[in-house]
Write a structure and sequence with these properties.
Blueprint (H helix, E strand, L loop, with lengths): L13 H14 L4 H6 L3 H15 L5 H14 L5 H11 L4 H9 L6 H15 L6 H9 L4 H24 L14 H5 L1
């Protein structure tokens, strides 16, 4: 049971209707998260915009997935972890990367591990990172641009993760086979 309404094009506020039509065209359906966000046209618009801006960053598909899933797992988002597992498959991201993220196990690739570690530091410490931690991140080939792009991804994921926690958004049918919970990882 959800605690926030999941809108469709007919039930959505007027300002959300065109945004939901955009989601329908992009995904062939309206993702449950978008239906919930439609309750406020401005948050749905912001989410869609942040998503597109993050996809357009300097990160490749593996790196996008590392940032998204690191945040999703850290926030224990029951909706976004399965959704981004399916999205990673559509983006041709190797299963071992997705499984390492879902299970919180280290990567063999030091650059991806540094990206995950910096993302976790930013999330857990609310942006308070030391120069030494930044130097470690920069040493593998990332720079200030990528550091700022992690924050962009965090802005997008904060909207989705927090909304899904409050709404208890049901996992969309295409992603139910990728169900996940933090308790399974920690158990």
């Amino acid at each position: 049971m959800t605690s926030l309404k999941i809108h469709n094009i007919e039930t959505a506020p007027e300002g959300s209707k065109a945004l939901l039509e955009k989601s329908q065209k992009a995904f062939g359906r309206i993702p449950g998260l978008h239906g919930v966000l439609a309750g406020s046209p401005k948050i749905l618009e912001a989410y869609q915009s942040l998503h597109q801006h993050f996809v357009d960053t300097s990160f490749n598909n593996e790196e996008l997935t590392v940032v998204w899933q690191t945040i999703n797992v850290e926030h224990a988002c029951h909706y976004c972890v399965p959704a981004h597992t399916g999205i990673a498959k559509m983006m041709n991201v190797a299963d071992n990367i997705t499984e390492a993220l879902r299970n919180e196990t280290p990567f063999e690739n030091p650059k991806l591990e540094a990206l995950r570690n910096m993302t976790l530091l930013i999330v857990r410490n609310r942006g308070q990172v030391s120069q030494e931690e930044l130097n470690t991140f920069y040493a593998v080939g990332y720079g200030e641009q990528q550091l700022l792009e992690i924050i962009l991804g965090l802005a997008q994921k904060t909207i989705s993760n927090y909304t899904n926690h409050i709404a208890n958004t049901p996992v969309d049918a295409p992603f139910q086979k990728f169900a996940w919970s933090k308790e399974k990882v920690e158990g």
